[in-house]
């Protein structure tokens, strides 16, 4: 039998090589898993049948249901008028603050993040509704596109978050605990963006020229809009976060209640056409299909690593190194940051988690704490050049004269804030672990 | 561009292609309905439990079965629409002629992998059928009925990948790949 290092090197080397050819990620995982098992078993195919049974079992998991349901919530938000109405209502509450529209972006983006798990939809909605106005008023890209991308990306963290469910499934940790753990860091990020915007615009008002013709609405009108268009959204937030926190329902049940309440609200506002509803279902089936099948393949892949002895060999090696857990975490974070520049988030999780999780367990690193840091790191990957997904979403909604370089520059300060927040969570694990410890 | 372009209309083969295309789309629509059904069943279970002494004890298992069907029913549909997640960072940098050649090879390899999975998936299904393996739970559901979605999903996807390769080879493939949405 080959030694673990050769196995690990050949498995990951061939996986990366095959992924680079543009073969669908799910098939790349299956090819490497099947071929390796076949070779390790000396040409006996029965093990492949076992692997197929394992893939089927990994899908037959009740806790995976939030993946399609959270995606459905995002699609409903995208197809309905909920977001437009809520944004208008929040707008009426902001007075003459520095960087007014940038702050409106962050606040609305954070609210939408609590309704949807789709960063793409969130960024596109914010871009479509706010960018033209900011552009017209001469906002600097750092104050217009920066907040749109960074607060759009919060959807990945603040529950409902389909990626958190995928992470928890592959890493086999509590979904409820992870969803709760992501709330505080998500809010800290949003508050940090707000502080950054206010301070920069206070020091340099030219970054976000004030709107001299701002029409003031009466408090009563503003309150009415808040009660009609924003307050009811708390029903959705409660359905997802509240019921888990209070121990009334499991995360899967919470996801179903969240999807149902999104549908009810969209219908109540008469903001969802039949066509929009069908598109939402189509989009949900499409993204759910893409994701669920990769999860099955990734779990098959992690079984290969266990079966081949590669995981155990690596663990023995880590033990022999007697590495400092903090150094290990920093190395892992650096790797995710690099992969994030080139790869899609689910692919990164599928490749790295089968290796990371046993090491974390061995070193006694709190898995939920690590998951929060890794998810923020993956969120950074949505905005890092050259291939961050949201950079392209931004390019799609921005006026044609906006170059990619301008978009990179706009994202940079917010990326630095994200790295600082990861650092803060590394130093104070409570920031992530406080809420999960309070679950009833 | 329609996937069945290049076929003459009115012939038996064109009806077969149309019927086959409709089947792939119907599978995807079924997956969409399953997601809605799962939402309804789980909500009904929670609300019944909260408001009365009743609940739907079968909801848990039935939902689990649906989670097997959803990705496999959409698998060939996503293949046809070229919406499976890929890493295109490197292929985007290749000169067009090399990228074209590589794309056809990759599609053929994709079809090959699907056939490989469908082959062993068929064995797994037949074994479960012969041994009469039944899901151990409240709902007695034969495991072969779940496993069979694997050879069907992957088998049909193999056909889709071959079709794409054939269209690419004949120059009738869609010139631009549709944008792939992401879960993030």
Number of domains of chain A: 1
Shape of chain A: globular
Radius of gyration of chain A: 23 Å
Give, in order, the helices and strands of chain B.
HHHHH
Distance between the termini of chain A: 49 Å
**Structural class designation of chain B:** mainly alpha
Number of distinct beta strands of chain A: 0
Mean pLDDT of chain A: 90
Most strands sheet of chain A: none
What does the main sheet of chain B amount to?
A: none
Textual characterization of the structure:
The complex is a heterodimer of chains A (440) and B (184). Chain A has 440 residues and is an all-alpha fold. Chain A has one domain (4-439). In chain A, 77% of the residues lie in helices and 0% in strands. Chain A has 21 helices and no strands. In chain A, helix 12 packs antiparallel against helix 13. The longest helix of chain A is centred in the middle third of the chain and has 35 residues, at 274-308. Chain A is globular, with a radius of gyration of 23 Å. Chain B is mostly helical and 184 residues long. Helix content of chain B is 67%, strand content 0%. Chain B contains five helices and no strands. Chain B is elongated and about 65 Å long. The two termini of chain B are 28 Å apart. Mean pLDDT of chain B is 87; it is low at 1-7.
How does the SSE layout of this entry go?
The complex is a heterodimer of chains A (440) and B (184).
Chain A: H1 4-20, H2 25-40, H3 46-59, H4 66-79, H5 82-91, H6 100-113, H7 119-136, H8 141-153, H9 162-171, H10 175-203, H11 219-230, H12 233-245, H13 251-268, H14 274-308, H15 310-321, H16 325-340, H17 345-363, H18 367-381, H19 389-397, H20 404-427, H21 430-438
Chain B: H1 12-51, H2 59-80, H3 96-130, H4 143-147, H5 149-170
């Amino acid at each position: 039998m080959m030694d673990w290092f050769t196995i690990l090197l050949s498995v990951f080397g061939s996986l990366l090589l095959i992924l680079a050819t543009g073969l669908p990620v799910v098939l790349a995982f299956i090819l490497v898993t099947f071929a390796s098992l076949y070779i390790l078993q000396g040409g006996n195919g029965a093990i492949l049948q076992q692997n197929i049974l394992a893939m089927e079992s990994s899908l037959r998991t009740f806790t995976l249901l939030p993946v399609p349901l959270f995606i459905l919530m995002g699609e409903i938000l995208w197809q309905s008028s909920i977001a437009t109405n809520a944004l208008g209502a929040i707008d009426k509450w902001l007075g003459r603050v520095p960087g007014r529209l940038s702050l409106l972006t962050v606040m609305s983006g954070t609210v939408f993040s609590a309704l949807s798990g789709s960063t793409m939809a969130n960024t596109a909605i914010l871009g479509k509704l706010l960018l033209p106005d900011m552009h017209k008023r001469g906002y600097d890209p750092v104050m217009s596109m920066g907040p749109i991308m960074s607060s759009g990306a919060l959807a990945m963290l603040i529950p409902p978050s389909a990626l958190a469910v995928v992470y928890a499934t592959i890493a086999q940790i509590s979904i409820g605990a992870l969803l709760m753990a992501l709330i505080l860091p998500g809010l800290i990020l949003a508050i940090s963006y707000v502080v950054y915007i206010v301070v920069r615009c206070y020091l340099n008002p030219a970054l976000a020229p004030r709107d001299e013709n701002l029409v003031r609405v009466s408090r009563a009108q503003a309150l009415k809009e808040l009660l009609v268009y924003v307050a009811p959204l708390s029903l959705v937030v409660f359905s997802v976060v509240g019921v888990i926190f209070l121990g009334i329902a499991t995360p899967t049940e919470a996801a179903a209640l969240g999807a149902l309440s999104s549908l009810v609200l969209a219908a109540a506002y008469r903001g969802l056409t039949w066509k929009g509803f069908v598109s939402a279902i189509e989009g949900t089936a499409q993204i759910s299909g893409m994701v669920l099948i990769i999860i099955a393949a990734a779990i098959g892949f992690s079984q290969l690593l266990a079966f081949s002895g590669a995981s155990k060999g690596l663990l023995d090696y880590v033990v022999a190194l007697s590495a400092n857990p903090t150094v290990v975490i920093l190395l892992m974070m650096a790797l995710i940051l690099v992969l994030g520049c080139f790869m899609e988030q689910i692919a990164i999780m599928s490749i790295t988690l089968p290796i990371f999780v046993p090491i974390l367990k061995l070193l006694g690193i709190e898995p939920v704490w690590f998951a929060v840091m890794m998810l923020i790191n993956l969120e950074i990957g949505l905005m890092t050049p050259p291939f961050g997904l949201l950079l392209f979403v931004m390019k799609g909604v921005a006026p044609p004269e906006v170059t990619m370089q301008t978009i990179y520059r706009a994202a940079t300060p917010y990326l630095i804030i994200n790295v600082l927040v990861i650092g803060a969570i590394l130093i104070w694990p409570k920031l992530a672990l406080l809420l999960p410890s309070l679950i009833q | 561009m329609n996937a069945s372009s290049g076929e003459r209309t009115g012939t038996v083969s064109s009806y077969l292609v149309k019927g086959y295309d409709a089947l792939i789309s119907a599978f995807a629509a079924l997956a969409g309905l399953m997601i809605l059904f799962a939402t309804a069943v789980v909500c009904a279970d929670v609300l019944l439990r909260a408001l009365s002494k009743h609940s739907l004890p079968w909801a848990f298992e039935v939902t689990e079965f649906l989670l097997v069907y959803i990705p496999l029913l959409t698998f060939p549909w996503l293949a046809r629409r070229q919406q499976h997640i890929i890493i295109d960072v490197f292929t985007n940098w290749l000169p067009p002629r090399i990228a074209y050649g590589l794309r056809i090879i990759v599609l053929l390899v994709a079809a090959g992998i699907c056939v490989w999975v469908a082959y062993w998936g068929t064995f797994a299904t037949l074994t479960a059928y012969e041994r009469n393996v039944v899901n151990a739970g409240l709902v007695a559901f034969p495991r072969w009925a779940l496993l069979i979605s694997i050879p069907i999903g992957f088998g049909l996807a193999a056909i889709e990948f071959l079709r794409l390769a054939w269209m690419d080879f004949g120059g009738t493939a869609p010139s631009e790949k549709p944008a792939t949405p992401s879960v993030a």
